[in-house]
Each structure stands twice: as C-alpha cells, then as structure tokens.
Design a protein that fits this description.
The complex is a heterodimer of chains A (450) and B (475). By secondary structure, chain A is α+β, with helices and mostly antiparallel strands. Chain A contains eleven helices and 24 strands. In chain B, strands 1, 2, 3, 4, 5, 6 and 7 form a seven-stranded mixed β-sheet that branches. In chain B, strands 11-10-9-14-21-20 form a six-stranded mixed β-sheet. Chain B is α+β, with helices and mostly antiparallel strands and 475 residues long. Classes of the chains: A alpha+beta (450), B alpha+beta (475).
C-alpha cells in the first residue's frame, strides 16, 4: 500500500477548526500502464501514477468541496480554506442528515491481484501484439482503428469526522480492440470486443479474433422489413440503453424527485417475469466491487427487479435519508477530484439457461443487435428511444442471413422490458453491467427503404 | 519553472529520444450543481501537472506526473516505455515538419469568472431554477451544472517550440423536465464562452427560463412523429451537430486512416455542390477556438469540403506525415491542392493524456436560401431546430436525436413534434442537401472520443430532400 493516506488525518481537525460542522477526506492513489494500438499498429506505451485528495465539508447542511493532487501541508490547508469558503457561500439545507456514521466495510473477494501490479510494459506490448495479430490474421479485410491493453492498480482511503476510517485496494486488467472490415467500397460498422478482469486472466487473442469476426460478418448484406419483430440485444447495446434509461429510473434521487417512471411503483410489475436484476457491490471479481462506496458506506447486494416486480432503488446517504431509507452503498466516485453521485455498482441481469447459439437458432425471424448509436439521446423519463442498431444482423429460420444497414429501433425501453421473452447464458461484464444477451419481442423497427 | 522544462527536453534527447515534448497545466476550476432549488455542491480546486511524450526507436512513450520535481523521472520513464513499444512497431512514427513558434498568449477575459463571487453565481442559477419551476405546475424538475476554468498551459518541444498559453472557459447546462399524464418531456439548454463570464450577463435567468419553459410545454402538447423517409429542414443547431458527428469524425485523419469511409474518397465528390465544410480554431469567441494546439502547431481555418469535394482532413503531425507518405508511395490518390499539412487539430483533455486528432469549431458555410424559400414548396416534412444528442460510426451511419421539431405541412411550419430522431448514411445525406440557408449560428458543445474537449459547431438552416425519421408511429 502507498503510505500517502496516513499523513492526511489532520486535515479533518483542521477543517473543523476552520468552521466545518462535518468533514470527509477521500484519498485516491492510482497507477496505470497502457499500450495502445493506433493507426493500425502497436506504437505507444503510457504510464501514469497519481495521488490526490478530495475534501467534502458541511456547514449548516451546505456542502463544499475542493481537491488537490499535492499532499504538501500548505496545499492541503488551501484545500480546507477553499472547501469551507464554498460551503459558506452555498445555501443551508434542512434535509441534510449528516455524513455517514462508521460501519464495518463489506467483505469482498477477487478484486486485487498482485500479479496485475507486477506486469511489465514488455508483457503488455506482447499482449497488444497478440490481440492485433489475431485480428489481422483473421482476414486481410480487417483494419484496427483503436486498441488498448491496460493494467491498473488503485487504492482508496476515506475518513470523516464521525470516526469513519476505511481503506482498500483493487486491480484491473483489460484489453479491447475496435476493427472495421473493408471490401472494395463497402465499409463495415465499427466492431469492438473486450475483456476486462480483476485478475491477470485476459485473453487478447480471443478478443482480437472475435472483433475481426464481427466486422467481417457485418459485410454480408441482408434486408429487413419495417414493422415489429423479435430483437436480441448483445451486451454493448444493453449497456448503452440501460445506462441512459433504467439506471436513471432506479436512481433514488430521480425517484424522490418524480423524475422516474418508477416513482411510487415499488412492488408493482414493471417488466417481464423473465427479468431479474440486482445491483451487487459485493459480486466476486465484479469490476465495480469494493468494500465500501464513495462515502464509506458498506456496499451490498440488493434486488432491483425480481421476476418483473420492482423491488428497490439505489441510494446514497443524502437521498436515502430524504426518502426515509438507508443508503444502499451506491454513492459512486470516479476519483479524488470528483464528488460522490448515485450510481450502480455491478448491475447484474440474471442469466437464463440457453446459450446464445440456441437463442438464435430458435428465432423464426428477427434481428441481432451488437450495439446502438444515439442511446444518449433517449428520453430517460419516458423511456422513449430512437436509436440506430449497428451492427445489426438479420435472422430468418434460425439462420443469420447478413447485416442490415440503417435500421432504427424506435420504441419505449421501459415498455420493451415488459416484452423480454428470453435471456441467454452468455454473461459478459464491462463497466457497470454484468449481463447476458437478452431477447425482446415485438420491437418497433424503422428502416431506410432506398 | 520554464528553465526546468527546457532542461528536461534536453535530458530526454540525451537519453536517446529523437523527439521530446512537455506539456504543463495549472488550472483553477470552479463548479456547482443545483437540483431544483437546492445547491447540491459547490466546488473549487486547483489542478496542476506535467507530462512528457517522446519518440524513441520510432515509437511513442508517454508519462505524466503531478509534480515538477518528478518531471525528470517521468521523462526517463517515457523513454523506457517508448523502447518497449518500439519492439512492436512496424512502421516508425514520423512527424510532419511544422514551423516552430515561441509565443506567450494572454487571454483578456471580458469578465474573469474567478472574480465573480461564488455566492453571486449561486444566486443567479438558483433564480433560473425558481423561474422555470414556477413557470407552470407541469414543470417538475430542474438540474443545473456550471463550471469555469481559468489558468495556464505550457508547451515545450525539442524542435524549439515554446508556448505559454492562457486557458479560459465558462460553461453551464440546464436540464428541465415536465410531465402531464403519461407524457414526459425533457429540454436541455447549454451556454459557454472562452472569453469570460459575460455570456451569463447577456443571457439573464429570466430570459433563459422563458425559453426553456416554452420549449418544455410545447413538447407536452406535441405530436409523435411518423417514422419513414421525409424531407427535413435543419436549423443551425442541428446542422452543426450533423456536420460535427456525421461528417467531422470521418474527416479526422486518424479515423480516415483507420479504414473509415473517407480514406479512398480523398479529393472526390462526397456531397452536394452546395455543401462547404470547414473546421476553424480562429473564429472569434468560438467555444473550440485557440491559438496553438497541444503539439504547438498554430491553429487555423481548414477547409474540408469545397463545393461537395473533400479537399483536406483534420490532422495532427503524425497523421499528416502518414497521409503524405501514402500519397508519395502511391497508396492513395488525391486531387490537386488536397491539403496534407498539419492543421492544428491535436488536442488533449489535460496533461494526463496525450493529444488526439480532435475537432475545433466545425461548420457548414452559408448559402443563399431563406428559410421561407426552403419550406414553401414542401407538402410534408419536418423542421428540426434543436438536438438532444448525436453519434456516428466509421461506416458513415449517424444518428441525431432532436428535442425541438415541427411538422412542415403545405409550405408552412405546423405543430410541434417530440422525441424525433434522424439517421442515415452521412455521404448519402450530404448528397441530398438541396438548399443551404443564408443565415449562420455557432453552438457550444463538448465532444467525447475517449477524452472530452470543448468544441463549437454550426452553420445555416439547410434542407435535405430525403432523411430517415425514427418515429414511434409506423407508416
């Protein structure tokens, strides 16, 4: 462990002496080694390591924040002065219930692997070469537009004036490659594949080959008719759509502020009975698993949707308090320079018991969608989406005919959740989402008839 | 400090690097967040650090540090990393030659955001929220994010370029939502400036509140769009995002070189002859304007499409050299006068990351149509005035969500339409542009490409004869 965190406890006393009612200091050390694929070759290698602190102070319920990437005493004194000044300039908040009291962090496993810290740049370069070669060896039509192999090591310590004092460390290693295939004038959509793990067990060869396979498979053309049809969404498409709709809807602040369609609907059927969703901050080897959240509250596993029934929301300590609940350990924090915000930890969609291949073979007619464009322009309150499905493959009688261009999904994602008809067992994890492919019936599809 | 930067550049060369550059930053940042009538948080911080990027053995090495004392360590580390990468490099990284510059660029703010009290900012934006929430009881929520940055950047390289440049921006975004029965509406308004805080004086809370509230209530009463192919007229806000998302990303040289749609169309017709597109870092007050990019290259106005033909791309020094080499080796054909000089498009989000090829202010040039002329001969179509978001793909597929749209019926602007989005293939769409307006407006925005940078985009009203509209109602 880095020893930076030990030398900052005095800041809390200093903040109280300078007018803070409460204070919280968040320390973060992060180290990253990465190799990038640019312009079709492995040509660059980066290293960064940094430590910094973020200080939250509270004056009459008003919150001020400041940060520094220098831990020198003089700089930290300035941080206190700036944060207190910010809080005093703000408005008192009667609903403020205080920073969290100390609680024992959750026991989690599989989030630190010493071998990830020890990996050398030469080894990462080898992995990047393996990944890139696997893609270009797959087909001469392939060019890689972007790729990365990365190893990360981080440490977080958090203390507040109520005696909370927690710390933990984590590692992550990952690789990703984006490719396009070209055949004459025909260019495939961007196809990327990834593998992110807590431990040193990524498979760059498989990632490279799969990214290339997806792009080559998108060159073969097929037509699709406008109307309603069955649609299978792969992980990247689900990640984009859930991120801009469902996450918003189950976020406690939006629920309390009536910005969510799920306000007042706990216990009601909001999705197909095929759908089970939990948010689990303690998931073994989960990419967002950690013993405590960005406010020091222990992480936990909670049901969000159980057999289609809405069971819970995500809260930090402030909105949990306003709603009359406890924090669910969902105050996310990106780094020392950012403030905590409600966010999912590992949002887990429970897997079904058929494979991806069986799911496709059982499909009479429909679409397979790897990714979507424009998810961020969705209406998170109403759930209305109007996105381009790209890459998107057409299936007839269980057989993939080819890829279709210019297909738009124009539907309502909250309504689509009620039409989930099958869930595969091909679980992938990336960022907040741990999910298999999911099939939806009767999805509205608009096409470009040229 | 500047002496230390010069010494470190020399140190890097002494370690065997063929090229060394150092970037430094010291920025004062202030931000605040408002949720309805509550100030969620007020933030003030100082961000400071340096990075070293080198070429050694024909590959890049990059390392960053928060302290000047450790800059030499970072330099040593960058050289070592470059040697590791050089074992994998097939074609050695080369940089296009550019004129070296020694300059100090000072920004004189119209009103320095650092001199505006936090309490005054809070009061101003709380007033905006109160005005919106009290405008109508169907308006349910208000969220506001504000930030300003004021400080300095250093750029020193081994070619002899030494630039010290002030950095300033002021930015804010309001998002409000409304609800009536089962209809939910959301509207976003964004303002920004690289000149100072004056932009908020020129757009007082009362006026902004009225604009946002009207747009929201209009959405509640709006019809849902018909899905299918229709003619559309796009306002400057939508033209800007189309030019940026749908075309601009394809014209970033790294995307083109990566096998994107434009690579084998350089010099060719890709759009209607009415279409002229440029990317310009010198537009006075543009949100993406600056004097030198993050490779120390003097930023300029770059013409990308002239009368429908691609006449240049956006480059950093590496991609400019690469394109030139491909042309020399006859791997690529281009037209006479095709630009391969670096354009000053290398930009980094901050000292922690190396620069990438990024846009600045990307615009379509004005033509000579009036809005009335564009609309009068349409029996049915849509007028798209403000976007919600957009995204493009290297195969030329784009999507733009629209938050303010109207039907055009029998030559007149009709009822409002909500939750509409458009999509298509960029080049087909640009070929279908059959009218370009005589107006022009520049917008404020952010662009994400792994890193986030401030950009401008804009243009006039334009008309496109065929566009795929993704509506909830199927024809």
């Amino acid at each position: 462990m880095n020893d930076g965190a030990k030398s900052i406890e005095w800041v809390l006393d200093y903040a109280e002496r300078h007018g803070a009612d409460e204070a919280e200091i968040y320390y973060n050390y992060s180290r990253e080694l990465r190799v990038e694929v640019n312009l079709g070759q492995v040509s660059s290698c980066h290293f960064s390591d940094e430590q910094g602190v973020g200080l939250r102070v509270v004056v009459k319920g008003a919150v001020g924040f400041s940060f520094s990437n220098s831990l020198e005493r003089g700089k930290l004194e300035e941080v206190v002065v700036r944060a207190v000044k910010a809080a005093k300039a703000s408005k008192p908040d009667e609903k403020w219930r205080g920073l969290p009291a100390p609680k024992k962090p959750s026991t989690v496993s599989g989030i630190f692997d010493k071998r990830v810290c020890e990996i050398s740049e030469e080894e990462l370069v080898e992995d990047a070469k393996t990944m890139l070669n696997a893609a270009t060896d797959y087909s001469s039509k392939i060019s890689a537009y972007w790729g990365v192999v990365v190893s990360e090591w981080g440490e977080v310590a958090l203390m507040n004036t109520h005696g909370l004092n927690v710390k933990a460390e984590e590692t992550m290693m990952g690789c990703a490659l984006g490719t396009v295939a070209r055949d004459g004038d025909e260019v495939s959509p961007e196809c990327s594949e990834f593998d992110f793990q807590r431990r040193r067990k990524i498979n760059p060869e498989k990632v490279g080959r799969e990214a290339a396979r997806l792009a080559v498979e998108s060159l073969r053309k097929a037509n699709v008719e406008q109307g309603r049809c069955k649609v299978i969404l792969f992980h990247p498409a689900l990640h984009a759509l859930i991120g801009y709709t469902l996450l918003h809807a189950v976020s406690g602040d939006n629920v309390v502020r009536e910005r969510s369609p799920y306000t007042g609907k706990l216990g009601e059927l909001v999705a197909s009975s095929m759908l089970h969703v939990v948010d689990d901050g303690t998931l073994e080897e989960g990419l967002n698993t950690f013993p405590f959240d960005g406010e020091g509250v222990p992480t936990q596993r909670k049901e969000i949707i159980d057999k289609g029934v809405l069971r819970g929301f995500l809260f930090d300590s402030y909105w949990g308090g306003v709603a009359g609940f406890e924090s669910t350990g969902n105050a996310g924090r990106a780094d020392y320079a950012s403030t905590p915000h409600i966010s999912a930890t590992n949002l887990v969609v429970k897997k079904g018991n058929i494979s991806r291949e069986e799911l496709i073979e059982g499909m009479d007619s429909g679409l397979i969608v790897l990714d979507v464009q424009g998810a961020h322009s969705s209406n998170p309150v109403s759930g209305e989406i109007s996105v381009v499905a790209n890459p998107c493959w057409v299936v007839k009688n269980g057989e993939v005919l080819g890829a279709a261009k210019g297909v738009m999904i124009a539907d309502n994602f909250y309504e689509m959740l009620k039409r989930v008809d099958e869930v595969a067992d091909d679980v992938r994890k990336y960022s907040y989402l741990v999910s298999p492919s999911v099939s939806f019936s009767e999805v509205k599809v608009v096409t470009r008839q040229l | 400090m500047e002496d230390e930067l010069v010494r470190t550049v020399d140190y890097g060369l002494s370690l065997g690097a063929s090229y060394v550059e150092i970037r430094g930053e010291e920025l004062m940042e202030a931000s605040l967040e408002i949720e309805d009538e509550r100030v969620r948080i007020v933030e003030q911080g100082v961000d400071r650090g340096f990075s070293v990027r080198v070429i050694s053995g024909g590959a890049w090495g990059f390392a960053s540090t928060s302290s000047l004392e450790r800059l030499r360590d970072a330099c040593r580390s960058a050289v070592k990393l470059a040697s590791a990468a050089s074992r994998a490099v097939k074609e050695k990284v080369e940089l296009a030659e550019v004129k070296t510059s020694v300059d100090r660029v000072h920004v004189k703010p119209d009103e320095n955001p650092a001199n505006v009290g936090v309490d005054e900012k809070i009061e101003m934006f709380l007033e905006l929220g109160r005005a919106i929430l009290s405008f109508n009881d169907r308006i349910k929520s208000f969220n506001f994010n504000y930030s300003d940055v004021y400080g300095r950047k250093w750029y020193f390289n081994s070619d002899g370029t030494r630039i010290v440049q002030d950095v300033l921006y002021v930015w804010g975004r309001a998002v409000a939502t409304a609800r009536e029965g089962d209809v939910y509406a959301a509207y976003r308004e964004e303002l920004g400036s690289v000149k100072g805080f004056k932009v908020w004086r020129e757009n007082p809370p009362g006026e902004l509140a009225e604009k946002i509230s009207h747009a929201l209530l209009e959405q509640l009463e709006a019809a849902t769009p018909r899905g299918g192919i229709f003619p559309v007229v796009m306002g400057p806000n939508v033209t800007g995002v189309l030019v940026h998302e749908a075309f601009g990303h394809l014209a970033e040289a790294d995307s083109a070189l990566a096998g994107g749609l434009l690579l084998h169309k350089l010099g060719e017709r890709v759009a209607s002859p009415l279409v002229n597109i440029f990317d310009d870092a010198t537009i006075e007050g543009g949100f993406g304007s600056f004097k030198y990019d993050d490779e120390g290259v003097r930023a300029q106005r770059s013409i990308i499409v002239k009368e429908g033909r691609v006449v240049g791309l956006m480059y950093d020094r590496e991609t400019a050299a690469k394109i030139q080499e491909m042309i020399n080796k006859h791997h690529l054909k281009v037209c006479e006068g095709f630009n391969t000089e670096p354009t000053g498009n290398a930009r980094a989000e901050g000292f922690r990351v190396p620069p990438l090829v990024r846009m600045r202010n990307t615009c379509m040039a004005s033509g000579d149509w009036t809005l009335e002329e564009m609309i009068e001969d349409l029996s049915f179509g849509y007028l798209l005035e403000s976007f919600r978001g957009g995204q493009a793909n290297l195969d030329g597929t784009f999507q733009v969500g629209v938050q303010k749209a109207y039907e055009i019926v029998d030559g007149e602007v009709g009822r409002p339409v909500r939750n509409l989005s458009i999509s298509g293939n960029t080049l087909e769409t640009l070929m279908h542009v059959d009218a370009v307006g005589n107006d022009f407006k520049l917008n404020v925005g952010w662009c994400g490409k792994g890193q986030t940078v401030n950009v401008g985009d804009g243009g006039p009203h334009i008309r496109c004869s065929r566009m795929l509209v993704g509506g909830m109602k199927l024809e």
